[in-house]
């Protein structure tokens, strides 16, 4: 996890580095720090908490540092403190290291170094890197780094400055993205864990991998392989006109992103369907129809909210295209020795395109010969580079850690893909058109829910007094309930359990009491009668019930304490109105609780450790 930024150039390096780190705060915000060289000495400033704390510290000093490296941290080894914040400096105070990733064998390396009387200041795995480089250093930094890399187990992207080389940053990477950008005319060089942090610049960009080392200074950039032989890297033009999004008057990015959804769902659909043929269109799909028609099994891999979208997509693919489809949690799949045959298609879903578990599962599937279809929001990411073909959400940057608009865009792309696969097989043009008609209504369906946000706000006031919740649903509403529960726990820190409604009688019903409300998702028509029975079971044990039910489902009103009425749609698409209502419920409960909604504690937008 964590974000790395580095700069050599003519701008105010401290300011540029802080701006870069702000773009990377989605990778963690437990602490941040910078280091540079000034008058031959290493200078480092670090602060616990968000980057704004670092900024405040820097403002107290009139600081000019060049070159500079910076870091924003998500704590793995050691608590979120200033002491554990990066950059990490060796005990002789000769060099500073920023690191993204995890050193698996840090403990044995630390023991080795301690035996050499080297003392440590932090609890981090990263400090092992700085101490090891210093230990191996005999005047040639590249050689010292290379020796160090050969001892490290794990994944990393690192950037280093050394006081003997005041004009240079040296960087290396293994299984963790590290982009290097340069503009020879402007004589600027940038390093980042994510090229999207190079906002508003025209650069040539390349990526380090497989223990490659880059030696970067004003005059040139030299790249060496693991044997220290020079190599030529293929570069891409990176031309970013993007600027960092603002809240546009909303109190939080999360609320803004919730309200963007009629638009983002529309964008995910735009140009991707044909009304005449009742099917989807994917111009950039690098798989032939023959390959897709030969598919007998689909394996979807993802984490968190993306996995919930994947599970809904799996149901649509089975229901509509009748292809056996399994949605697997990436961190589990990669240790399962997945069965991948010639006619298995693997779909990897990720908003950020950088989730380490998803990438690792993709690599495992590729090693078994699988073709990968990525469904991604952020462009220029590891997943987009490693997929054989990519479908983009085009939802725009999602800043709130709590994912909302990416989820509904993922469902949209998956719905279109399921339609495409179904039409390639047995689905008639008429049925395809009927499905498209329902899908096209979704932006209006979502708008209608959003217009009634005040009603959800008052329900949130009432339910925010509880500490524990059950979120129940069946079929499409089961996964919807999992996603809704994740939203609530993530931003309000309340205990919310998503569960298949039919399953609670097999144990969890023991928890039911008047102190534990049930949030019931009743919009799946096929299982409507069944969920009524489940609600009766919890009602008779005293649970307060808040139901999300389609207009006309009056039986629910007889049972539930509160009902929020949803505009109708078909089962396959019922997640949209229910999820929007649940996102608003979570948001307003979190607001009642006064939590940090956009950047909840302990989390990061992109989880780049396994
Ligand atoms: O970027 P990804 O879609 O790969 O991220 C996966 C999860 O980390 C993410 O969806 C997470 O669960 C969200 N914070 C949930 O709101």
Plain-language structure description:
This protein has 610 residues and is of the alpha/beta class. It has three domains: 3-239, Aminohydrolase, N-terminal nucleophile (Ntn) domain (Glutamine Phosphoribosylpyrophosphate, subunit 1, domain 1); 248-446, Rossmann fold; 452-599, Rossmann fold. Helix content is 36%, strand content 24%. The chain is built from 19 helices and 27 strands. The strands form five sheets. It has an eight-stranded antiparallel beta sheet with strand order 3-2-4-1-10-9-11-15, with helices on one face. A hairpin with a 4-residue loop joins strand 16 and strand 17. Helix 3 packs across helix 4 (126-136), helix 7 (261-269) packs parallel to helix 13 and helix 7 runs antiparallel to helix 14. The longest helix is centred in the C-terminal third of the chain and has 23 residues, at 429-451. The protein is globular, with a radius of gyration of 26 Å. The N and C termini lie close together (9 Å). The model has no long low-confidence stretch (mean pLDDT 94).
